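User: Hey, my collaborator sent me this sequence without any context and asked if I could get a structure. I don't really work with proteins. Can you help?
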Amino acid sequence: MKKHINPFKTLALLALMAAPFLGRASDGDNIEKKKLINKSYTVGPDDRLSIENSFGNVIITTWDKNEIQVSVEIGVRAPSDEKAQLMLDQIKVTDNQGGQEISFKTDIGSMGKGKEKGNWSKNEDSRKFYVDYKIVMPARNPLRVENSFGKISVPDFSGIVSLTSKFGELSTGKLANAKLVHVEFGKAEIGILNNADVILKFNSKSNVAGLGGNSKVHIEFCSQVNLTIDNTVSDLAVFESYSNIHLKAPDNLSAQFDIHTNFGNFKNTTEFNIAEDNDDDTSGPKFDKDYSGSAGSGAAKIKIKSSFGNVRLASIHDKSADNEDAHDEDQDDEKGGDKVNL
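Assistant: No problem. I've predicted the 3D structure and written it out in structure-token form, which is a compact way to encode the shape of the chain:
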């Protein structure tokens, strides 16, 4: 009998390792101090904004002006005025403008180390310290954001974007030029992507509303990933290990499928003509399987490689597939509570 490593047990262990970062402020932390930073820049279409932050949120909104506005709020809570000021002084935000890049970087000093590493919480009402960015910028300008222990929110965006989220949440609208979308130890609600490189690792449920153009998706140790294939896709490669993937496709998709599983399962509930490639060797158990087939005229190329995971391909109109996913999640909950909501 095949014995698969349960990714959710790994998620549970890693969540426990991250737990010290999720402490809440105590009742005695009654002194609050804040510091505000506001910057404004006139930009051309090629000027890039780069943000490196931790222990806070990065919220992007867009407008039609040739201007980027960055507002940073640094907040601390402590039992005394002296302690609060000491904490506030440790947190630095540096900014720089050079060439065609505007950059901001957060340095929390010792706040994320030693005794202070428990001083941040996902609950915004109980955070002992935080660094929140609110940004207004043109949707066409290049954008790079790296954030840990917080949220990233990006609306519909036409410029080149690179987004990295760790121990947090990522939500986006439609990204026309997604150079990189990288989420680890968190969750993601992602809009339609075009020409994207997507990396999802150690996440709870993640959704991608559409994959178009030439895109690659790397998935490791994720409890549930829902990917919708867009009709604009030309080349899609999905590499999965120790994860559950639900692929949804439009009924009029035109694509060729090349699928390989190793100690995994593939299920096709569409009308697409996809079948297992049988070989002459029928002796003993078979751990590697290959499937191929086409939809429509087979214009696009879709390659899927799965190891120790489950891949399901269904129509975007197939509601029964959604019900099966919910049933599978309930079964996971019954197996000792291995499922983790990060």
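In plain terms: The longest helix spans residues 319-334. You can pass these tokens on to your collaborator as they are.
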